[in-house]
Specification:
Elements: H1 2-29, E1 36-38, E2 40-56, E3 59-63, E4 69-75, E5 81-82, E6 87-91, H2 94-155, H3 161-220, E7 222-224, E8 229-230, E9 232-233, E10 236-238, E11 241-243, E12 250-252, E13 256-261, E14 266-273, E15 285-290, E16 298-305, E17 321-328, E18 340-357, E19 362-364, E20 367-373, E21 379-389, E22 393-398, E23 405-407
Antiparallel strand pairs: 1-23, 2-14, 2-18, 3-13, 4-6, 4-12, 5-8, 6-7, 9-13, 10-11, 14-17, 15-16, 15-18, 16-17, 18-22, 19-20, 20-21, 21-22
Helix pairs in contact: 2-3
């Protein structure tokens, strides 16, 4: 009896296994239902990924202004927040101070020399010459009166003609001497004294210019902040090295050693590829996150898009990029400039777009096609025009209507 029961159980097990195999075979050989998608209306938001660097819109570059070279005696700390007029750097001014003191003395002497000429030497010279002219005039008048008397005496035969002729020659000589004195006074006043005054004034002006230049150099030994910002030391060649400046380094005129990024207004500068260019326009909204501060959210708008393609280091020469600048809204807290920033540029959005999954659309060159199902279930290839897109969906602008079904690959 037990043996019969075992036989029956074995038979049922084999029968169950046979049915399972039959069902499995039917599943493999049966036709699979086609995968489809239905065009439906919904919201879509298209963004373009963007990477750039955070920069201050305004950066004031600070350079050494002292003529020649100068040694740094004091330097602001890296990253210090400064206001307008705060001390940024001080150069050694000991030699300039000595030069200025000497030039101040030269200026005083030049001013005194001019005053002496104007108020003493030249007026005294003219006074002496005018005094001699007055004496010559008086002598000429006396001799002319005597000549008249001599002529009267000659008529009365009390004086000889030779004596009168001698007196006439004397009067003529005195008259010539008077004319010479007049000419000398006029030339001295117009030319000799004018030339000496011009020379003295030129010496004074040269001394003033030299003194003013040295005073300016002394003022340039103190470098103060022209704008408010964050002090950032700029690497530069110093003694064969390329590094930031230190106290004791020798810097040269117009050598930039520090910059002041203005923390009040920031921009993000970077590049987009030519494929993304049609979707990046001035005015498009931007959402950004600094790589170093993932919890900080930045907002702004595309401010400008470059008009000339460029190549980028590390990229194939056939790939073209366009510079993009994004203006950020005011930051809640200042951030260091130069940070890497990941951003998304909102290329467009629609709350009621006709949407299909990306996989439903087949591209042949620049033409998009779908396999639309008719009411009878037959597939027909239809050309469609697409619009916005995100990672999963495409907007269908033309070629389909809401509710149309399409085959999926």
């Amino acid at each position: 009896m037990k043996r019969n029961e075992r036989r029956m159980k074995t038979g049922w097990a084999l029968a169950g296994l046979g049915c399972a195999l039959v069902l499995a075979g039917c599943g493999r050989n049966g036709a699979e239902a086609p995968r489809t998608a239905t065009a439906a209306r919904g919201a879509i938001r298209m963004t373009v990924p963007f990477q750039g660097e955070l920069e201050a819109r305004r950066v004031e570059m600070v350079a050494a202004g002292v003529q020649g070279s100068a040694v740094l005696a004091e330097l602001v700390a890296e990253g210090a927040r400064v206001e307008v007029g705060d001390l940024l750097a001080r150069f050694d001014a000991s030699q300039i101070e000595q030069d200025l003191a000497r030039q101040e003395n030269d200026l005083i002497r030049a001013r005194q020399e001019l005053e002496s000429l104007e108020k003493a030497e030249l007026p005294l010279e003219l006074l002496d010459m005018e005094s001699k002219r007055a004496e010559a005039r008086a002598e000429l008048e006396a001799e002319e009166r005597f000549l008249e008397s001599a002529r009267g005496l000659m008529e009365r035969e009390l004086m000889s003609a030779g004596e009168v002729a001698q007196q006439e020659r004397k009067v003529a000589g005195l008259r010539t001497r008077g004319e010479q004195l007049e000419t000398r006074i006029e030339l001295t006043r117009k030319h000799v004294h004018a030339a000496r005054l011009a020379k003295a004034r030129a010496a004074l002006e040269a001394a003033e210019r030299q003194r003013d230049f040295t005073a300016q150099q002394l003022a340039l030994c103190e470098v103060r902040a022209p704008v408010a910002g964050v002090a950032t030391l700029v690497p530069l060649p110093v003694g064969g090295d390329y590094r930031t400046a230190h106290v004791g380094d020798t810097l040269f005129r117009n050598q930039i050693f520090l910059c002041l990024p203005d923390p009040a207004e920031h921009v993000v500068r970077g590049y987009v590829g030519e494929a993304e260019l049609p979707w990046v326009k001035p005015g498009h909204a931007v959402e950004a996150v600094p790589a170093a501060y993932p919890d900080v959210r930045l907002a702004g708008r595309v401010e400008s898009v470059g008009g000339m393609a460029q190549t980028r280091p590390g990229q194939p020469v056939w790939r073209k990029f366009f510079p993009v600048q994004i203006a950020l809204d005011p930051l809640a807290e200042p951030l260091p400039v130069g940070l890497s920033v990941r951003a998304e540029i909102v290329a467009g959005e629609s709350p009621d777009a006709l949407l299909l999954p990306r996989e439903a659309v087949e591209w042949r060159g620049a033409q998009a096609r779908v396999r639309k199902l008719s009411a009878a279930g037959e597939a027909e290839e239809v050309v469609v025009r697409t619009g916005l897109a995100d990672a999963a969906q495409l907007e269908i602008v033309e070629g389909l209507a809401a509710g149309d079904r399409v085959l999926l690959p």
